[in-house]
Amino acid sequence: MALICSMAGAQMAQFQALYIYNFAKNISWPAEDASKDLVITVIGDNELGSELTKLAKTKGVGNRKVVINQVATVSNLPQSDIIFLGESKSNLVANLTSSQDGKKTLIVCGKKGLCANGAGIAFVSEGGKLNFEISNNNIKKQGLTVSAKLISLGTSVD
Amino acid sequence: MKFRTLILAGAILFSSGSFAQNKLTKEQILSMSTEELSDLPLEDLMQAVETLGVSSVDELFAMIMNKNVASASKKEEDSFKSPLASTVITKAEIRSYGISTIEEALRLIPGMIVQEKSNGMYDVHIRGLNNIPDNQMMLYTENSNTLLMIDGRIAHNYATGNVNFDILPISIEDVDRIEVVRGANAALYGPNAVNGVINIITEKTNAASKTVQGSFHMGTQENYVGDIAYRSVVNDKFSFGVTANLQYRRRNTNELYVYPTHGIYYSQLSHAEWAAAQQGLPVTQLGAYIAQGKLIDASNGGYYKTTDIQKLKQAFSFGAIANYVPESLKQNIYAIQQAKAAADPAGFKAMYGADQASEATVALFLKGLANNMDYQLYDVLESQGDIVDMFDDPGMSRKSYGFNSYFSFRPNDKIYADLSLGYQQSRVNTTPIGELPFSMSERISKTGYVNLDAHIYDLSLSASYSGGTQDYQNGIPGFKCFVNNLQLDADYNFEFGDLTVNPGFTFKKYFLTDYVPEYDYADPNNFEWSYHEHGYKQKIGGLRGYLNNTRVNLDNIAPSLRLDYKTGGFRAIAAVRADKTNIPDEWNISYQGGLSYSINENNFVRASYGTAMRSANVVNSSTDYVWHRDGLMPPDTINFQADPEAPLAKIKNFEFGYRWRPSKSVLVDAEAFYSTSEEYGALKAHQSSVVMPTDKLYAFMTNFETLSGLRSITDGELNLDVLTTFMQNTSVVSTVKYAELPYKVKQMGFGVNVDWIISPKLIAKFNVNAQKTEIDNYYAYDQNAEILGQLGQIFGMITSVPQMASDIQTGAINELMASGTFTEEQLMAVLTNPDFASADFQTYFNKYKTYLGYAMSDIDQNRVSQIAAEYAATADKEAFLNNLMNSANPSDNTQYAAYYALRYGVYNNDGIFSFGNSKPYEAQTVNGHKHKATPSVYGMVGLIFKPTPKVDITAYGNYIGKRTYETKYSTEDLDDRFTVSMKLGYKPVDGLEVFFTGHNMLNNEKQEFPYGDKIGGVYSVGVNFGF
Fold first, then answer.
1. CB contact residues (below 8 A), chain A span 86-125, against chain B
2. Does the CA dihedral B524-B527-B531-B532 come out positive or negative?
3. B436 and B422 fall within a common domain
């Protein structure tokens, strides 16, 4: 039974990882970073972290190589382009968003509703679907630009 | 691999924005590698996820495993790391089980004992401690140990000190989640959090909210239940939601359950027979009526139509009091029997079958007394009008609607405010709060509320008002009230590194008045005392409430302080709160302390200690109510006396807990607890008296045969007929007062709750709770027995009089006369001298004057003759007595008249003579009494099965172990009970689910609650929607 479960969880993590890759593709990253690695930091979700690590071995975003960090807390975060906050760490969202204020970081959360707390994107998993809420305002505040397509695919909460 | 790539290439080729028309099948997606999937554009990836339906597992984790809880330490945090015994259920979980009331939803939470009384009406307790003390009326079965809140706004019924879910304005659609914190939590939340707190958190509108969401279902037993919400985010600062809900649920019968009551008969007597029976029914006649089927035994209780309840009569004999006579009287009877056995051995043996007086012969005498006294028949309900007024519809279970609105204003993250307001009306048939012969009464509520929560940086402020009219027992005068509840809270959050300090302050004002504007208070008929045509019971107009139109304030101010310290995996919390109340006028301090340790992400241990107490309620602290029990068996009048210093139950509670996540898909929450509680109270018989209204006294004064008849017991044989007549023509007045019982209640137990996501398609949940509840210093406090015991004492006093008379009359009279002084006893002895037996009025007074010398010396003999003549001509009793008293000694009428009556006589201002006042009851207590109304084992098991994303099949079973309710009416053994409820749901399109539910699917028709309905299965169809 535990096996079925972890498979199901892994599948979810796999898709979340794929979505995050797609998010990355739909963000206009600062030109000065074009030659740098794209850093994704995962807080509190080991499964997603390992899925992303697997993916990063073979896939980049545009011409950028992808580097994955996995951490447990929001203190002393490495400089990141994307930070994913795992659902179990949702209570840290306020600390996270304030610590990343204006750092050109896309903040993605695993729990629905957290765009209200400053996240750029929050996964919404309902009725067998994986959707996401997106806040263009929050992303803009971070100094990033998001494609209209991504906004249209998600649920805009602005 | 090639084949797969081909399909993929084809799919991508076809897609170009129209992938949806060429969807990959599930098998195709599953066969793709991550790399291949990573080539899909996001919209196609999203479609692929939908096809797979994989995401449900995280949805489930969010719903089942990763909840937040705010009630446990007043801060939103991961429920896994809550330092207290807390559990959360979410709306999604409630809806998935097809549950349609907030009360039933609580069955999903460990430690909750939820029993259905009638269709959709529940008794809800946390860990029990219910029905303490036992042997009381049904009000004592209600939950007085839990603090119920909606968004922190207290929804306690301070009138009677209970939790009433039927008057909540909200329904499941309003709920975001329900948090239950078990254990004593007064330091965090204030009084009444004795066994725990239920905090219902309402859904906040946000961008993810559905615009329109709700549920409607209809089912058997004429169930119509629905709710709907409209939620809208106006801009990034302002959002709102409005909701409406409706419940209409019928019982499966129009009949009411009549309690098992000794001596109750269903009457087929004719008017003439009934009228005759009012004058006293000899035992033989009672037997004859029963044999003829004119009185049908109904003493085992059962369901009766209201029209039949009107025909219920209760046979009562004062002889019953003989079973409760005090030891002193038994000794008195023993002495009389001894004398008789010595004087007339043959006669004694013929009567008692023994040579000597003994305990057995005394018992035989008392038994004979009990068996030979006439019965009186009483109407169980006074008149047809009463029961008609009491029920709009006895077949109704719950009829209610509510409206709520929520406004949220968030100018920024530091300053925000939430405002909610709402209104509800409800009319339910539920457990009576007062004394009725049947187990239901109608409660009508029309209340509204407004609640404001504001956060300004680290300061939290909340203000709420709720109020309206509540008629706690429709149709019975005195129970309609205006209630008002005002509460202000302030709380400041200081953070010093790892230490959080929260000073807080609460101001609470509750006031209640039973003044009802639509009543005509100017009409004196509504207040005047009058006399019942049968006997001499006082009757009162209906407009006095149980506060006599006054207003009661229950005020409370409470400073509090919470400390929360975290370091490493350790956490320590401490809270103290001091409640200053006006009733009782004192400070009460509550404490709470807890330690917890996160061993790692998957193991968490905690321990805590807390204290709590109940608050005062209006009934126990402030009642000033006279209940005239017209047509009911004695006591004829019960005075309810308030005691502002009435005891308030207090508890001390230890909690230990362990939470364990053996895998991501399993969550185990285990807890153990131990509590001691005391200062429980009950309406105790304070004092009872046998009284005689003035006009009855006239009858006795003018019928010396009767009066003297009572004296003929001097030879040891009571004149039963005379005694019966005497007793039947008096009234019994009892005073009851809320007073402390010496009980010390110990409760210990443990519970385990497991949530297990077996697979994304199958989720299981179960909890089991085992506990033991014992009472030290216990005695079966029985108000009826106590009142009868008190009457027994008085009875003893009355029947002891002749003994003294015989002692005194032997020659002491002359001596007394010579001395010129008389004690009460001496006077009484003179009055009950057998010499008066055959005296007529004139000679009586002559003798009286002769004997009593000084006391009657002022009487003008001619005037007495004149008065007697007037009476003979007019039969005006009132004039007679007034004249007589005025003639005797106008300066001392009271005492004079009382001497006419009997020993210990007291004349009070209501024109009543009282013949004796009882002494308090002394009980023998035992330790380790097992309290059986709280079940030893209970729990639930639930399964959610989602074979496809469109189909939900859910079921849950609820188990409650055996319980025994001892009430003042009977002892009710309730079997253990397992009920299964299920839901079958299908989602044809997004945002719509059609479903079938079977509540109590297997149609278990056992009563779940004492005297409750045999509800059986309720089957419904319905829709859940959200767009």
1. 87-88, 90-91, 94, 110-113, 115-118, 123-125
2. positive
3. yes
Q: Quick check: A87 and B66 CB within 8 A?
A: yes
Q: Are residues B276 and B238 in the same domain?
A: no
CA distance B993 to chain A (A): 11
pLDDT at B36: 81
State which residues form the domain around B382: 256-387
Contact, B195 vs B126, CB < 8 A? yes
Q: Any idea what the CATH number is for the domain that residue B1014 is in? A: 2.40.170.20
The residue range of the domain holding A35 is 2-156
A54: closest CA of chain B, how far (Å): 9
Contacts of A8 in chain B (CB under 8 A): 54, 57, 759-760
Number of domains in chain B: 4
Q: Residue B300, class by beta-carbon neighbours within 10 Å (0-12 exposed, 13-18 middle, 19+ buried)?
A: exposed
pLDDT in tens, B677-687: 999 988 877 77
Least confident interval from B526-530, B531-535, B652-656, B913-917: B531-535
The pLDDT assigned to B962 comes to 95
On whether both B770 and B843 belong to a single domain, the answer is no
**What residues of B are in contact with residue A59 (Cβ under 8 Å)?**
35, 38
Please say which residue of B326, B360, B387 terminates a domain: B387
Q: Cβ contact (<8 Å) for A127 and B990?
A: yes
A51 contact residues in B (CB cutoff 8 A): 34
Note the pLDDT of residue B675.
96
Least confident range from A17-26, B216-225, B467-476: namely B467-476
In a shared domain, residues B464 and B603: yes
pLDDT tens digit sequence for B121-170? 999 999 989 999 888 889 999 999 999 999 999 999 998 899 999 999 99
Do residue B855 and residue B947 come from a single domain? no
Distances in Å between the Cα of B673 and the Cα atoms of B195, B658, B676 are 11, 12, 10
d(CA B636, CA B731): 6
Within-domain flag for B220: yes
Give the Cβ contact number of residue B991 at 10 Å.
13
Query: Are residue B108 and residue B227 in the same domain, yes or no?
Result: yes
- Are B445 and B588 within one domain? yes
Binned at pLDDT 50, 70 and 90, residue B518 comes out as low
- pLDDT mean over B901-924: 42
Cβ contact B54–A130 (<8 Å): yes
* Residue A62 touches chain B, beta carbons under 8 Å: no
Instruction: Provide CB contacts within 8 A for B489, sequence distance 6+.
Output: B152, B460, B461, B462, B463, B504, B505, B506, B507
Chain A residues near residue B236 by CB distance under 8 angstroms: 137, 158
Minimal Cα distance from B991: which residue of A? Answer: A127
In a domain, B690, yes or no: yes
pLDDT in tens, B690-744: 665 545 554 544 443 333 344 333 343 445 555 556 666 666 777 788 888 899 9
**B36, B39, B44, B55, best to mutate vs chain A, most A CBs in 10 Å:** B55
Hey, how many other C-beta atoms are within 10 angstroms of the C-beta on B820? 9
pLDDT attached to residue B445: 95
* Lowest-confidence segment of A123-132, B152-161, B750-759, B967-976 by average pLDDT: A123-132
Spatial distance between the Cα atoms of B197 and B116, rounded to a whole number of angstroms: 20
Strands B459-471 and A155-156, how do they pair?
A: unpaired
Same domain, B226 and B240: yes
Chosen domain end from B365, B387, B409: B387
The answer, yes or no, to whether residue B544 has pLDDT greater than 60, is no
A71 in contact with B, Cβ within 8 Å: no
CATH number at residue A58: 3.40.50.2300
Q: Do B208 and A112 touch (CB under 8 A)?
A: yes
For B81, nearest residue in chain A (alpha carbons): A88
Q: How far apart (Å, rounded) are the C-alpha atoms in residues B684 and B784?
A: 10
Residues B236, A54: C-beta atoms closer than 8 Å: no
The shortest CB-CB distance from A5 to any of B50, B413, B664 is to: B664
**Coil, helix or strand at residue B698:** helix
Work out the pLDDT band at B311, boundaries 50, 70, 90: confident
Nearest CB partner across the interface for A153, out of B37, B42, B665: B42
Question: Shortest CA distance to B445 belongs to which of B159, B200, B640, B199?
Answer: B159
User: Which of B53, B55, B236 is closest, CB to CB, to A158?
Assistant: B236
